[in-house]
Structure formats: C-alpha cells, structure tokens
Amino acid sequence: MCDKIREQYPYLYETHLHTLEGSACAHYTAKEMVRACKEYGYTGIFVTDHNWGGNTAVNRKLPWDEWVNLFCKGYENAKEEGDKIGLDVFFSYEAGYAGTEFLLYGIDKEWMLANPTLRHASIEEQYELVHQKGGMVIHAHPYREEDYIPEIRLFPEWVDGVEAVNAMHSNSKSVSHNAPEYDEKAIAYAREHKFPMTAGSDIHYTNLLGGGVAFKRKLTSGADYVKAVLSGEDYVLTNGEYWYDKEGNILSEVKKSN
C-alpha cells in the first residue's frame, strides 16, 4: 500500500477496532485482529470495545471490578499478541448512550477501576472524568443512521473532536453502515465547530478496510495520541481508499502495492 502520502506519513494507526472478547458485535478475537492489522501494514491499533452502554460482550450485572477486568481482556490479549509480533496496541473504548457513541482515548484500566461512577455517569460527567485523566472524547460516527440509533444527537460542548472519516461509511468494501453522506456531514460538523478530525474503520472482522490516522512519527502511548490530535500535530486521515487532510479534504487515492 505504498504511495507518496504514505511515504510522508509512514506510521498508520487503526483508531476504532472491536474484539470478540469485549464487543458482542465483533467476529474475531483480539489476537486474530492483531495479526490481520500487522499483515495489513498498521503501525498500531486502538482497541475500542463497546462499554456497558453499547453492545458489550460482558455481563452488565457483574460487580464493577469484575466487569472491568473481563472487559479489558480484549485489549490485554491484543497487547500480548502485539508485543510478540511487533504491533503497538493502545487502550481505549467506545462509550454508548442510547445509540450515541463516543471514543475515549488516553484513559486506562486503572482509571476505570478507580472510577465506578462511570457506569452511571452522564455524557457531561464522562467528559469531566476523562479530562481529569488527561484524556480525549471523540464523537464516533455522529451522523450514522441505524435501528439502534433512535436519533442523531450532537454534544459539541462535551467532546474534543469528531470521527469525521469512518471507513464503514465511505469505503466501497464496507458490508454495513455504507453511506458516504454520514462522513460528509461529520466533516461539515467538525469544520463548523473547528474540532480536530480523526478517522478509523470501526472494524469488527479481519477483512480490513484500512482506515485510520497516519503520522510522520511513531506514537508512544494513548496519551501521546491525545496530545498529537489536540495540539494540532501534522497527520492525515484515510478510509482505506482515499487520503484526507486534517480539514477533511481529499488529497488522493490510496495506492495499493498488490
């Protein structure tokens, strides 16, 4: 998948990925997802399994500590495999509120264990707790329309950025949620509020789409990703078929080597 932009931004990260351990809608284990992402050419991934407010695979009735420990198995199994084969794996998750979803970055398992109020936190309270940790809240696919999303709800006061490019929407190989206009609306929303834009695949299977964010340097942690996005560092976005700049403008097609 070599091209001129990839040469300039060689470090590609999948920022939206689900595992069978943590997400009921996923189809492959964490280790299988890691191996697929390594083979594709990603530098690293963020495991963003669904929490108790979304399509989680973990029993919501469990005590908090037990729930967190089981929920984090997706990330932990992915990290173990990533360390073995040379793929960076970072912790994050997707928080659901009656169909409205947010990607939380720069947080960790210890933070979750120390904050059992997360289970009943409002969107505003979630934002404050994430910020206390130095993390970042990104509104995931804000204009997606599906049966599990009763209405489009926007919370510009309580997010730090927007997932403006979701490969499930705009990559021609996507088998679900395929509607490029969802991304077009998300880009317009981010521009209106001058939000940083991110990109990811929302991937649930090993037949990857190739979406994500690419940098000129290698990220060192989830906190480093937060700093890079919020500080305005140079990066590009992709849905696996097109490259976009940080303002959501298409730069070029992604040239595949195969």
Give a summary of the structure in a few sentences.
With 258 residues, the chain is α/β, with parallel strands linked by helices.
List key phrases describing it:
258 residues; alpha/beta; TIM Barrel; eleven-stranded mixed beta sheet; 9 helices; 11 strands; 24% strand; globular
Descriptive account of the structure:
There is one protein chain. The protein is α/β, with parallel strands linked by helices. It has one domain (4-253): Metal-dependent hydrolases (TIM Barrel), CATH 3.20.20. Helix content is 31%, strand content 24%. The chain has nine helices and eleven strands. It has helices at residues 4-8, 30-40, 64-71, 73-85, 109-114, 123-132, 167-170, 180-193, 222-230, and strands at 11-17, 44-50, 88-97, 100-105, 136-139, 161-166, 197-200, 211-215, 235-239, 242-244, 250-253. Strand 9 and strand 10 (242-244) form a beta hairpin. It is globular, with a radius of gyration of 17 Å.
Estimate nothing, just give the exact number of structural domains: 1
Percent in helix: 25-40%
Spatial ordering of strands, largest sheet = 7-6-5-4-3-2-1-8-9-10-11
The secondary structure category is alpha/beta
Highest-level CATH class: Alpha Beta
Low-confidence sequence ranges: none
Lay out the secondary structure:
Layout: H1 4-8, E1 11-17, H2 30-40, E2 44-50, H3 64-71, H4 73-85, E3 88-97, E4 100-105, H5 109-114, H6 123-132, E5 136-139, E6 161-166, H7 167-170, H8 180-193, E7 197-200, E8 211-215, H9 222-230, E9 235-239, E10 242-244, E11 250-253
Parallel strand pairs: 1-2, 2-3, 5-6, 6-7
Antiparallel strand pairs: 1-8, 3-4, 4-5, 8-9, 9-10, 10-11
